[in-house]
Automatic annotation (TrEMBL):
PANTHER family: ASPARTATE KINASE, ASPARTOKINASE
Protein name: Aspartokinase
Positions bound to substrate: T43, E122
GO biological process, one term: threonine biosynthetic process
Any one GO molecular-function label of the UniProt entry: ATP binding
Binding residue positions for ATP: K5, F6, G7, G8, R233
EC number: 2.7.2.4
Organism encoding this protein: Aequorivita soesokkakensis
Length: 419
């Protein structure tokens, strides 16, 4: 049994879905679980639906819902000439369920609403992909992942109930044949409401299935040749990494390498299941393998950047030391306001933290911090992380830039830059 995961870029249109079928024919794997994301930028579009719904702007909300429908109907028409094909009715039912939820919902809880609405992206995409593969002779079983992956009720970033999930996956997934399911989604154990595993959680879904099924490998199909040592959108002369150890890959993911979701690697490492990152545009190329062995091949510097962060600098109002009690309060408030901490640095009387304000709670956090500290902050900063760096690279990166903070260890240097 192997696990394949296809992201939104691979199925962004009808030609993309057809290309997935070609990848499956070329790889010729008979026993597969295929995890699919929402098509293209659908998640972003459904996030707009949620935002306008909560703003009581129902006309704008309906406009985005219509755009969601039209986008997928266009893909259907590019795949199925027969408008009487059952997949049209299946997709229409999903549209109807989303509309019905928006009509009857009374909750104003953003995270709850988000998961119920955004999940339709994966449900529609997997329905279309499954139907198309069946249409061209690639027999498969459709699986609603919410019946398998059970979680707590921490909407938008749910934690997996591993014991319950493993039992259900092993019961519902056949060891033979092809199963099509959704990434990113689960359901909470008490009321079965839909949950999500965090953005880019489809990679994590693939790892969950691999762990529970003792899979031979996981392959993530991307629009890049594999894991590169830097994001080609921001860096020139990037290099393909042929092999990365689990430990190094976890380090890169922790610092924000966008190709691999941070939570994906941990279950794979526990059972030493290799992870391959390959190009769906060139499926016969070797790509990158993450697994046991050498730390990095080739041995080279790796560059990671995170944009649109906030650097918060604190000092005590009475010039007392920033000791455990003060720092403990800071982390308690960061956790309460759901700030993702990217970097910290402290001295005797100051404490700096670079955070990702993914839930737009910055103003509330700053108000709380001002009760106890002198507070300064910079918004829209960029955090550069370089693994296995050399001095010349750091000098070149910082040249003509406003470096607000620098932190260096044996293997890693981080720069917070206001660009």
């Amino acid at each position: 049994m192997k696990i394949f995961k296809f992201g939104g870029a691979s199925i962004k249109d009808a030609d993309g879905v057809k290309n997935v079928s070609e990848v499956l024919k070329i790889t010729n794997q008979k026993n597969l679980v295929i995890v699919v994301s929402a098509m293209g930028k659908t998640t972003n579009l459904l996030e707009k639906v949620v935002a306008e719904y909560l703003n009581d702007n129902r006309n704008k909300c309906k406009e985005f819902v219509s755009e969601f429908k039209e986008y997928h109907l266009e893909i259907l028409e590019g795949l199925f000439e027969n408008r009487n094909h059952p997949v049209y009715e299946d997709v229409s039912k999903l549209f109807g369920k989303m509309a019905s939820f928006l009509d009857v919902n009374k909750s104003k809880n953003h995270a709850f609403l988000y998961d119920q609405v955004v999940s339709f992206g994966e449900l529609v995409s997997s329905t279309i992909v499954s139907a198309y593969l069946s249409e061209i002779g690639l027999k498969n079983e459709f699986l609603d992942v919410r019946k398998c992956i059970k979680t707590d009720a921490n909407y938008r970033d749910a934690s997996v109930d591993w014991e319950a999930t493993q039992k259900k996956i092993q019961k519902k997934v056949s060891a033979n044949g092809i199963t099509i399911t959704q990434g990113f989604l689960g359901s909470e154990t008490t009321n079965n409401f839909t949950t999500t595993l965090g953005r880019e959680g489809s990679d994590y879904t693939a790892a969950i299935f691999a762990y529970c099924l003792n899979a031979e490998s996981v392959t993530i199909w991307k629009d890049v040749p594999g894991v590169l040592n830097a994001d080609p959108r921001y860096f020139t002369q990037t290099m393909l990494l042929n092999h990365i150890s689990y430990r190094e890959a976890i380090e890169l993911a922790f610092y924000g390498a966008s190709v691999i979701h941070p939570k994906t690697l941990q279950p794979l490492q526990r059972k030493e299941i290799p992870l391959f990152v390959k190009s769906f545009l060139n499926p016969t190329a070797p790509g990158t393998c993450v697994g046991k062995g050498v730390t990095l091949d080739p041995q080279t510097s790796c560059f990671i950047l995170k944009k649109d962060l906030v650097l918060i600098s604190l000092s005590s109002l009475d010039f007392s030391f920033m000791m455990e009690d003060n720092i403990g309060d800071v982390f308690k408030w960061l956790h309460k306001h759901k700030m993702k901490v990217e970097m910290i640095q402290n001295s005797a009387i100051s404490f700096s933290v670079c955070v990702n304000d993914k839930f737009n709670n910055l103003e509330a956090l700053l108000a709380k911090l001002r009760e106890k500290f002198s507070v300064k902050w910079n918004e829209n900063v960029t955090l550069y992380t370089i693994r296995h760096f050399n001095t010349a690279e750091i000098k070149a990166l910082a040249e003509n830039k406003n470096v607000l903070l620098k932190q260096e260890s044996k293997e890693t240097v981080q720069l917070v830059i206001k660009e």
